[in-house]
Amino acid sequence: MRKIMVCVKRVIDYNVRVRVKPDGSGVITDGVKMSINPFDEIALEEALRIKERGEAAEVVAVTLGPDDAQQQLRTALAMGADRAILIKCDGALEPLVTAQAFLALVQKESPELVILGKQAIDDDAAQTGPMLAALWDRPQATAASKVETRGDTLIVTREVDAGLEVNEIDLPGVLTVDLRLNEPRYVKLPDIMKAKKKPLDVTDLAALGVSTEEHSKVLKWEPPAQRQKGAILKDAAELVEALKKKGLV
Amino acid sequence: MNKILIVAEHAGGKLNPSTPKCVTCARALGDAEIVIAVLADDGAAVAAQAAAIEGVSRVLRVDNPANAHPLAAVLAPQVAALAADATHVFGPSTTFGRDLMPRVAALLKAPQLSDVMQVESATRFRRPVYAGNAIVTVEVPAGRKLVCTVRVASFEAAAAGAGPAPIETVSVTAELPAHTRFVSVSAASSDRPDLQTAARVVSGGRALGSAEKFQLIYALADKLGAAVGASRAAVDAGYAPNELQVGQTGKIIAPSLYVAIGISGAIQHVTGIKDAQTIVAINKDPEAPIFEVADYGLVGDLFTILPEIQSLL
Fold first, then answer.
1. What is the ipTM score, two decimals?
2. Which of B74, B95, B304, B306 to probe the A interface (max A CBs under 10 A)?
């Protein structure tokens, strides 16, 4: 492969307990740690491993987001991506718009493989990968837990409800990755320094000819209904009795 | 009037219980014609099951050898063609629907709402984000085709109707790609209840310590007639196969009884179980977050408690 494109998203860090703003206009992001979506980190790691096996020449990390998303691209460069592209966009990111933006980059960059996380942990939409594949008119393999390259085809093991499904796809194509595909590397300080010198290009939706038409609108954010904390029982007998009383066992 | 096309999920000639749940969600739109599309190599049996669901107006049966396995790239152009006059296209938020529906949406240039948990109107829906830490109410423009995946844990399955809906055998003109091929599926065959639809679920976590000791979970589940689940930590450690994972990135379930054994209760796990009617937690750490959502908690060593429970049942 000549080129692998990896799409990453800037999201609230996995370890932050997300809270809805009191006025229902969104979630609290002030002073909150932002990171690369963990699934996208796995996507990048996989691309780097393919490159390190000598099966790809270049890894390009791309994102759609605000100026601050350059931080996540720098992290991607520190992990080992060769260069990065930011598509600047300050509004809410809808998967259909995101997929159209990535398609525009795909047409410019002509990668043989695009890798993304199977979902982002903010909107949990899980749409961008398959949408990009459809717009590109190329194959998709979603929720990958094992990937083998065999010339111009990929043998992909996918995590599905029934178990593990194996699909074969012809490249170019789109891969979305699941948690158990790999464990991303830690970034070392010298790599952070080196990453500062790697190329990071900035473009925007208008330059790519992508319409910013709004397809859906969030009217309201609410915290979820809370479950009431129950009782701590003293032993197994008390538990079994309680469950029998409710007709649950 | 709304015209809702539901893509049937099926395997081995059997309709998946996710489909009647999609029907319940579709009926919540009110005035709607509900059509189920069955794409299979031989869809006779599945179409008959779909036609029996209450509230279904018609079943479209598309037989094609290419539809023998659920490949999104092959199914999507056919679904898009069938959806030409639909106002809404629904599929389940199972791995089948998560793979297929966004591909359909992109072909239709339609927006998609994932994991719809509540219908407010034909253009207004509620769905969880941030692993269920927030619920958003989303509006889409009227008159715009909309694709949805239905969060199956949020809807009861529609019952059988009075009489079967008519089944139409249709052929679809769509170019089907050869660039994606099915190789195999390794489904563990099990006589146990299905995790996503079981009334009772017993789940084990990292505290089980090994695949051998995880057998304790199976033993208790069998005694209760329950399905078996697992936390991500237990699956990552190799104690249980991936298809048993419950949580944000695994299965979202809503059983009558959920028993979490040796599971600390990370938010990503809790998001998969919080629609359960009764949650039982057994954990040696009294501070474990799982106790915040449990109706009944037992603090102690699971290896002592489980045999006691077994002997009392």
1. 0.96
2. B95
